[in-house]
Structure formats: structure tokens, C-alpha cells
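Hello again, I could really use a second opinion on something today. I've dropped the whole record in just underneath, so have a look.
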Amino acid sequence: MTGLWMHFDLDKVVNVLQSDGYLRKPAEHCLSVFGQKLIEGLDTGSVWKLDEKKVCVHFAKQILKGGKKKMESFIEWKKKIPEGLQINIDMLKGEVLTERLGVDAWVYAFSSAINSG
């Protein structure tokens, strides 16, 4: 993982989100879904980091909810990923199918991937 900003102090993240009107529980939920806890401290709170693959898969699923996409169009998924994450199309193995029809390459979501949330 690159970039120190990828490591989050839970209390600091929650405080910022609460100042924007969000509740603590949804913030904690998002970190538990898209990250992993690195440190559980008694005085310092907990430190989390984003899981690059989980974040990448999330954005790919969002794009593919609308159906299949041409590869050229789907690759714009990379623009939706937060800056600093190291992403690769290989992260989506098991989550998407690619198919070449003539000169076009298409990307589809696995139906089980779409239904898994």
C-alpha cells in the first residue's frame, strides 16, 4: 500500500464525518467493509488501512450494475478509484468476465458478484 494517507485513525475519521453530519456507526461499518484494522490501541484508538482490492471491486461492481461495458469504457473505472491506491485489472479476477467479440472486448459482472452486495 502506498501513501501514508491510506492509514486511518478511526476516531479522527469519525470526527470528520460527524462534523459533516454522518453518524459514527456507518463510518465504522465502511471501514470494516473496505479496510482492515492494523492497530487496536487503548489510548490511541484504532488504526485502519484501506484494502485496495475491496475498494477496486466495489467501484467495478458499481459501474457494471448497469450491464456490460466495452473495455475502453470500463477502464474509466480507474478514474473512480481514490488517488494513491495501487490498482490492477487482475484484482477483478473472479468478479468480472471479459469477452472478445470481433474487435471489441466487453466486461460483464458475474451474477453472483452483483448479488453479493
